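quick q for whoever's on today - can somebody do inverse folding on this one?? i tried earlier but teh output was garbage lol. tokens:
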């Protein structure tokens, strides 16, 4: 009498080696429940039913692991449920080395022919590898399992994202560099000396004007001697004041003489009037 177990939960997958050590003769995958409990998707709920997938990488890894351990312990493996009726699942299981597959009645004929052809191709491939071991050319690449293809796709996506990140980082560095250069150019243009002149009143009649003239990277200072219009204006003002001071006494003298002459004239007029009055009397 043979004793076997059903592998329908993730827990049974995790302890498959311990279960084989108990002396079981065979295991059978219950893929319907194993998929539901692994993905936490209720296959009877129409709201999440579309997420239910027996070909999910997590399910395929569990199946491959259990088959490998069972072969090491001479435990037969089989599968029941709807998953075995799919050609892609049947191909995966045959390549992993499963011993038997149960399928739905309506798919039994097609799956049987498909598996028969697949096993013949695998047998010819192995025979070819045994007969031609010394061929220097690489042997024909074995078809990749579904989980390996998924892994490769993920790796490719990661590489693409890494390239995009590096490219974006380079563009950001170039933008920052250009921004700093533009900012530095603006600051330099603000600090460039412009041609200007400033007047400094010094001793004597000369004003020293210093003009900054840019030439190349250096600034040349030139000294020019120019007439001092300010000092000239001050001198002319002083001369006019002195002349006014000189002319002022003359005007005062003339005014005083005019006043004296006027007073004398008035006095004479009064005297004449007095004499006239005396003659009358």
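ok took a stab at it. sequence:
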């Amino acid at each position: 009498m043979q004793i076997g177990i059903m592998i329908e939960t993730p827990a049974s997958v995790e302890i498959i080696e311990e279960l084989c050590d108990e002396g079981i003769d065979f295991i059978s995958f219950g893929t319907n429940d194993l998929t539901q409990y692994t993905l936490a998707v209720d296959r009877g709920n129409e709201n999440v039913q579309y997420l239910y997938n027996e070909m999910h990488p997590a399910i395929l890894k569990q199946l491959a692991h259990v088959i490998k351990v069972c072969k090491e312990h001479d435990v037969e493996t089989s599968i029941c449920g709807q998953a075995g009726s799919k050609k892609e699942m049947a191909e995966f299981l045959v390549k992993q080395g499963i011993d038997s597959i149960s399928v739905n009645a309506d798919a039994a004929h097609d799956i049987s022919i498909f598996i028969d052809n697949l096993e013949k191709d695998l047998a010819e491939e192995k025979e070819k590898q045994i007969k031609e071991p010394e061929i220097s050319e690489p042997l024909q690449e074995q078809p990749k399992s579904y989980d390996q293809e998924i892994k490769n796709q993920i790796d490719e996506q990661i590489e693409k994202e890494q390239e995009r990140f590096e490219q974006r980082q380079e563009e950001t560095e170039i933008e920052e560099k250009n921004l700093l250069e533009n900012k530095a150019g603006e600051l330099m243009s603000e600090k460039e000396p412009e041609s200007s002149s400033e007047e400094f009143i010094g001793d004597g009649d000369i004003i020293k004007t210093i003009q900054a003239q840019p030439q190349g990277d250096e600034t040349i200072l030139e000294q020019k001697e120019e007439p001092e219009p300010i000092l000239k204006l001050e001198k002319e003002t002083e001369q006019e004041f002195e002349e006014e001071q000189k002319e002022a006494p003359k005007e005062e003298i003339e005014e005083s003489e005019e006043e004296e002459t006027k007073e004398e004239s008035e006095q004479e007029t009064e005297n004449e009037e007095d004499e006239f009055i005396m003659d009358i009397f």
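fwiw The beta strands are 4-7, 26-30, 76-80, 100-101, 197-201, 206-215, 218-227. also Residues 229-280 form the longest helix (52 residues). so keep that in mind when u check it
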